[in-house]
Amino acid sequence: MGAELELRILNADDLNCANEYDYFKENISARFKDNITSEFLQCMLEINTPVFNNLSDLIKYFKEITLELNSLASKKNLLLQSSGSSALKQEHLELSSNKRYQELSNEHKILLDDFSICGLHVHVGFKNFDKALKAYNFSLSYMPIFLALSASSVYSNGQDTGIHSYRTKVFDRLPKASIPEYFTSYTQMKNVYNVLYKTEVIQSEKDVWWDVRIQPSFKTIEFRVCDAINDFDRLEIIIGLFRGICKLSQLKEVSFEPMQVLKQNMWKASRYSMNANFICKSQQKTIREVTNKLIDELYEHHIISDEFMDKAREIVSKNSIAQDMIEIYEKTNDLREVEKIGVIK
User: Fold this and answer.
1) Which tens digits make up the pLDDT trace of 70-101?
2) Right CATH number for 2-341 from 3.10.20.30, 3.90.1150.10, 3.30.590.20, 3.40.50.1370?
3) Minimal CA–CA distance to 261: which of 182, 320, 164, 184?
4) Domain extents for the chain?
5) What are 32-56's pLDDT values in tens digits?
6) What value does the mean pLDDT take over residues 54-67?
7) Cβ atoms 213, 326 nearer than 8 A
8) Comparing 164 with 214, which gets the higher pLDDT?
9) Alpha-carbon distance values, 7 to 161, 180, 342 (Å)
10) What angle do CA 322, 154, 275 make, to 5 degrees?
11) Taking the CB of the first residue and of the last residue of the chain, which one, N or C, has fewer CB atoms within 10 A?
C-alpha cells in the first residue's frame, strides 16, 4: 500500500492561501524530501508515502511527516490544511512552476480556474494483472462509500455549494475524469490507453484521472475518489477498507452494475455524503447499511480485525466531515470556522 494526501498551505492570521510550496520543499529534512511534491498551485503540496505492508506503519508515517511539516509551518506563521476545497474565497493564487501543470492549465482554461481542491489517493499493489483487474472491476460499485466517508468540500471559494463533495463535481468537468468503465481483459484496457497515447491525449498513465484507475505497468490500483481529510482515524479506516475490498474481490464474483446506477450512486454520495441513499441490487438502501454490510463481509472473511471493525463502525455512525462543516456554519455563520476544521494538528 501507499497513499498520497494533498495539503493546502494557509496564512495563520487570515487563513488565506499562501504560495509557499518552495519553502517546504527547500527546508524539509532529507528523510522526507523525496516524499513531498508540488501540486497544481503553489499554495499546495502533496505527501507521497513509501510502500507499506502494514496499515499502522502507513498511518504512523503520515503522522510523522505532518508533524515535521507543521513544525516548518509554525516558523513562518503558516498552517497546513487538508479538506476537499477551500471554504474561503481565495485570491492571488499562483500556478505551480511545474511544466505539466502549466500545460494542463492552458488546455482546460476556465475549468481549472477554481482548482484549489485537495484529494486523497490510495494505491494497492497486486502480484499479477488479472488479480488487479478483478479488484478494479469489483471496486467500482463501492466508490460512493469512500466518497461519502471522505466528503469535506461542501463550501468552496466562499460559497455554500450544497454538495457535500463539491471537489468531485469540479473534477467531473474534466474529460479524463469521473467514474470509469468496466474492462473484461488486459487487452481491452490496454487498447484504450494505447489510443490515448497514440493521439497524444495523454503523455503517461497519470494523465488519466478516473475515480479509480489501474496502472498496467505496475499492476497497481489507484483509488482517487476521496476528498482530502485531516482526521487520522478516518484516514486509517478509509485506507483499510480500500485494501479490504481488494482482498474481498479475490473471493467473490464481480457484480457488473449499469453505468447509470454507478453514476447515480456517485451523485447521491457527493450530494448527501453519509445521508445518501444507495441503489444496491435494484433496491434502495442507505449508504450506512451498505457500508456496514461491507464491514461485516470483510470481518467474516478474516480480512479485518475486531479492533478495525469496531473503529470502522464508529466512523460510519458519525457525521461526514461535510456534515460537521454545515453544523459549524449554521452555528457561527463564519466560513473561517469551517476552514479551521481541516487544519492539521
Assistant:
1) 999 999 999 999 999 999 998 888 888 888 87
2) 3.30.590.20
3) 182
4) 2-341
5) 999 999 998 899 999 999 999 999 9
6) 98
7) no
8) 164
9) 21, 26, 10
10) 50
11) C
Residue spans of beta strands (DSSP E) within 82-217:
119-125, 155-156, 159-160, 177-178, 209-210, 212-215
- What's the DSSP call for residue 216? T
Which pTM was predicted? 0.95
Given a cut of 80, whether residue 293 has pLDDT beyond it is yes
- The C-alpha torsion from 244 through 246 and 248 to 253, rounded to 10°, is 150
**Would you say 153 and 167 are in contact if contact means Cβ atoms under 8 Å apart?**
yes
User: Comparing C-alpha atoms, which of 342, 345, 328 is closest to residue 81?
Assistant: 342
335: its cell numbers: 466560513
Range of weakest confidence among 185-189, 296-300, 331-335: 185-189
SS3 8: strand
For residues 76 and 92, what is the distance between their CA atoms, to the nearest angstrom?
19
User: Could you tell me which residue, 101 or 143, shows the higher pLDDT?
Assistant: 143
CA dihedral 111, 165, 142, 209 (to 10 degrees): 20
